[in-house]
């Protein structure tokens, strides 16, 4: 596989054409969206409620239920990004941020590694939304969040992964 040719370069990502050679020696061109990586955070209050956000996404033309998330800045470690994005989108600051898992978002076309954190020891504050963001934090019980998953109302992949992975891990840890 070659280093590729940049087809487009934007503020948050670039599109690169890369060539691979298959087992028969045939060349294939692939257009890949290269992203610097991102974080998503599961904020859990001391009383067990969680903070999701309602986030208008222009790409799909609707408001989605999501975990707070954001893109890594150049040279920024995922933990620092998680701390920054949690405060920006929800107003909460966390005493504890623990990395749970990292995963590829859509590896067929997208090179974006998402880092999942759980945030506890939360202190409330004011969100600091970036220009153009339409985000509203919402506090829910765990059962209410799982009900949104069951009903298909949570359609954002990182949120489904975050909630379901945390739920599975909590049940597995409790059983051991």
Notes on the protein architecture:
- The chain is of the alpha+beta class and about 180 residues long.
- It folds into two domains: about 1-35, no CATH class; about 35-175, Nucleoside Triphosphate Pyrophosphohydrolase (Alpha-Beta Complex).
- The protein has three helices and eleven strands.
- The strands form three sheets. It has a four-stranded mixed beta sheet with strand order 1-2-3-9, with no helix packed on it.
- The longest helix is centred in the last third of the chain and has 19 residues, at about 155-175.
- The termini are far apart.
- The relative contact order is 0.19.
- The model has no long low-confidence stretch (mean pLDDT about 95).
What percent strand?
Answer: 35-45%
Cα radius of gyration in angstroms? 18 Å
Level-2 CATH architecture of the largest domain: Alpha-Beta Complex
Largest sheet: 4 strands, mixed
Give the overall average pLDDT. 96
CATH class of the largest domain: Alpha Beta
Notable features of this structure?
alpha+beta, Nucleoside Triphosphate Pyrophosphohydrolase, four-stranded mixed sheet, 42% strand, globular, 176 residues, 11 strands, single chain
């Amino acid at each position: 596989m070659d280093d590729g040719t940049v087809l487009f370069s934007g503020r948050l990502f670039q599109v690169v054409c890369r060539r691979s050679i298959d087992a028969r020696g045939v060349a294939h061109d692939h257009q890949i969206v290269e992203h610097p990586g991102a974080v998503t955070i599961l904020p859990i209050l001391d009383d067990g409620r969680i903070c999701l956000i309602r986030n208008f996404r222009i790409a799909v033309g609707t408001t989605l239920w999501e975990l707070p998330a954001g893109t890594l800045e150049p040279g920024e470690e995922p933990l620092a990004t998680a701390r920054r994005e949690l405060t920006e989108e929800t107003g909460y600051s966390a005493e504890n941020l623990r990395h749970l898992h990292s995963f590829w978002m859509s590896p067929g076309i997208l090179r974006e590694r998402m880092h999942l954190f759980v945030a506890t020891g939360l202190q409330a504050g004011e969100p600091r939304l970036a220009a153009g963001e339409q985000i509203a934090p919402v506090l829910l019980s765990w059962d209410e969040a799982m009900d949104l998953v069951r009903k298909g109302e949570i359609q954002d992949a990182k949120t489904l992964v975050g909630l379901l992975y945390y739920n599975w891990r909590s049940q597995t840890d409790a059983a051991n």
